[in-house]
């Protein structure tokens, strides 16, 4: 994973941690696969349109039990339960037990289970499991990413035919982004105008896996949710994607970043510059600065 600020040397066996995390994610995936097409108990979260289901909670309970049992000295931050466990070990797990809840709630099975282990504030291990296909991807900082068959996962050398000038991109935004946000609205518009297609999957971890595999060419994120960031970012970077902040500066997928500083551009190396130019133009426009033609 490319970073000018390496994470502290882990004091845990990352191979064993990866095994535990993958088994927990896959067990949650089995639960999802057997129950997602049945009736769900659905509740609104807060004042917005985001929802939580009984399936989220069941998967979360399963994962927390396994991770907490294997690593009782670690802190865990989970989508629904919040922060649990010890806070002073220097190790934190980020857990999204069902990324894509809104999809599942309307009968669209586009979802994932994600776990990341952070040493200090940066991810050193990431696991993403796709319940529908039963596939799992994982990455270790500095050691690369592997796919479901255990082979090294690397971006293809070239984008798919016809996509050099018209990249297929994914858009990720946090739940607190307003419909008339002065950055999100023009940025999405410009990405749609200059790209081949802009996907909004409602399941950010799925988008990260698609980037790591080369299925899409880039992701632009604006105020993304914390639990969706470390596992996916690590996976994509270890597969060869590059990440930058929206203003073009270095990007560290730290769990300490506030929402306003989590915006990013992640892309194939040859697509990065154009996406950053687009983001910079929108940020200048929002700040009232002149924009180059």
Total of DSSP H or I helical runs spanning 4+ residues:
7
Shape label:
globular
Please report the total strand number as a whole number: 14
Largest sheet: 7 strands, mixed
Rg of Cα set: 18 Å
Termini Cα gap: 35 Å
Q: Helix and strand layout, with pairings?
A:
Blueprint: H1 14-35, E1 42-44, E2 51-53, H2 54-70, E3 75-78, E4 82-85, E5 91-99, H3 101-105, E6 112-119, E7 122-130, E8 135-140, E9 144-146, E10 168-173, H4 184-194, E11 197-199, H5 204-213, E12 218-222, H6 230-238, E13 242-245, E14 264-267, H7 269-286
Parallel strand pairs: 3-5, 10-11, 10-12
Antiparallel strand pairs: 1-2, 3-4, 5-6, 6-7, 7-8, 8-9, 12-14, 13-14
Concise summary:
The chain is an alpha+beta fold.
Fold and architecture overview:
By secondary structure, the chain is α+β, with helices and mostly antiparallel strands. Helix content is 31%, strand content 24%. It is built from seven helices and 14 strands. It has a seven-stranded mixed sheet with strand order 4-3-5-6-7-8-9. The chain has a five-stranded mixed sheet with strand order 11-10-12-14-13, sandwiched between helices. It has a two-stranded antiparallel sheet with strand order 1-2. The model is unreliable at 1-9 (pLDDT under 50).
Q: What distinguishing features does this structure have?
A:
7-stranded mixed β-sheet, 5-stranded mixed β-sheet, 293 residues, 31% helix, disordered N terminus, alpha+beta
């Amino acid at each position: 994973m490319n970073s000018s600020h390496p994470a502290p040397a882990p004091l845990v066996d990352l191979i064993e941690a990866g095994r535990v995390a993958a088994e927990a994610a896959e067990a949650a995936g089995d639960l999802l696969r057997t129950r997602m097409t049945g009736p769900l108990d659905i509740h609104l979260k807060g004042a917005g349109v985001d929802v939580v289901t009984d399936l989220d909670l069941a998967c979360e309970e399963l994962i927390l039990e396994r991770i907490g049992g294997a690593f009782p000295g670690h802190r865990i931050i989970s989508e629904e339960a919040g922060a649990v466990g010890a806070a002073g070990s220097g190790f934190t797990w980020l857990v999204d037990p069902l990324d894509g809840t809104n999809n599942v709630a309307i009968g669209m099975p586009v979802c994932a289970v994600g776990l990341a282990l952070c040493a200090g504030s940066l991810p050193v291990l990431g696991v993403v499991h796709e319940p529908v296909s039963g596939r799992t991807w994982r990455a270790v900082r500095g050691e690369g990413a592997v796919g479901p068959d255990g082979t090294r996962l690397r971006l293809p050398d070239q984008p798919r035919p016809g996509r050099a000038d018209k990249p297929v991109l994914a858009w990720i935004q946090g739940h607190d982004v307003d419909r008339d946000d002065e950055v999100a609205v023009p940025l999405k518009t410009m990405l749609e105008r200059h790209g081949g297609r802009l996907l909004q999957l409602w399941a950010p971890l799925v988008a990260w896996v698609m980037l790591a595999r080369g299925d899409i060419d880039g992701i632009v994120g604006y105020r993304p949710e914390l639990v969706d960031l470390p596992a996916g970012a690590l996976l994509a970077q270890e597969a060869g994607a590059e990440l930058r902040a929206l203003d073009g500066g270095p990007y560290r997928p730290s769990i300490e970043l506030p929402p306003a500083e989590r915006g990013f551009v992640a892309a194939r190396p040859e697509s990065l510059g154009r996406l950053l130019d687009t983001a910079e133009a929108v940020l200048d426009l929002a700040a009232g600065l002149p924009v180059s033609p």
